[in-house]
């Protein structure tokens, strides 16, 4: 698993690439800690380059969601392929964390919520 992050207008976009493997949770936890330390409480996880998500990835998403929620922030997901969408639906994570087709759609939704 490879992770890149970019901060745009107070929103952190985390781009995940590759497969979740045992041990990749170390890099994910590091990203979560960095996000907390930066003070940013709003994030979008771009899943467009993730072919499949397993318990490691699901655990990361849930922990990141809880971490941001504790700071009154939000987590949105974007770009999941059909296989990943099915796992998110099966585990009901898709009911807790909003899922968008594109990162830009998630950004627009977050900005609209801030304006309201």
Describe this structure in words.
The structure is a single chain. The protein is built from four helices and five strands; from the N terminus they run E-E-H-E-H-E-H-E-H. The chain has 116 residues and is an alpha/beta fold. It has a five-stranded mixed beta sheet. Helix 1 packs parallel to helix 2. The termini are far apart. The mean pLDDT is 87.
Blueprint of the fold:
Layout: E1 2-8, E2 11-17, H1 25-38, E3 42-49, H2 55-70, E4 74-78, H3 82-90, E5 99-100, H4 103-115
Parallel strand pairs: 2-3, 3-4, 4-5
Antiparallel strand pairs: 1-2
Helix pairs in contact: 1-2
Structural class: alpha/beta
CATH topology, by name, is: Transcription Regulator spoIIAA
Beta strand count: 5
Summarize the biggest pleated sheet.
5 strands, mixed
Helix content: 40-55%
Radius of gyration: 13 Å
How many domains, as an integer?
1
**What spatial order of strands do you see in the largest sheet?**
1-2-3-4-5
Under CATH, the homologous superfamily reads STAS domain
What is the average of the pLDDT values?
87
- Please state the second-level CATH architecture: 2-Layer Sandwich
What is the terminal separation in angstroms?
A: 36 Å
CATH class category:
Alpha Beta
Envelope shape: globular
Defining key terms:
alpha/beta, Transcription Regulator spoIIAA, 5 strands, 116 residues, 5-stranded mixed sheet
């Amino acid at each position: 698993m490879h992770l890149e992050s970019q901060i745009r207008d107070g929103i952190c976009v985390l781009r995940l690439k590759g497969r979740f493997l045992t041990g990749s949770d170390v890099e994910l936890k590091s990203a979560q800690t960095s996000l907390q330390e930066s003070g940013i409480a709003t994030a979008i996880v771009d899943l467009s380059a993730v072919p499949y998500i397993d318990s490691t990835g699901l655990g990361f998403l849930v922990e990141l969601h809880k971490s941001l929620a504790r700071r009154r922030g939000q987590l949105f997901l974007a770009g999941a392929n059909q296989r990943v969408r099915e796992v998110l639906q099966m585990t009901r994570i898709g009911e807790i964390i909003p899922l968008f087709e594109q990162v830009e759609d998630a950004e627009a939704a977050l900005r609209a919520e801030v304006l309201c």
